Amino acid sequence: MPAGNPLRIPSSAQRTATVIFLHGLGQTNIAWHGTVQWMAVQLPNIEWVLPQAPTRPVSLNSGQQRSSWFDIQSLPPDCNEWEEAAMASSISHVEGWIQAEVHRGADPRRIILMGFSQGAALGLLVALTTLHELGGVVSLAGWIPHKGREQIVHTRPYLPIFCGHGRNDITIPTYYSEEAMAFLRDVLRLPTAFLTFKRYEGLGHTINRAEMHDVVTWLQSVLHLRPVARALIM
Question: Would you name the residues annotated as active-site residues?
Answer without folding.
Answer: 117, 169, 205
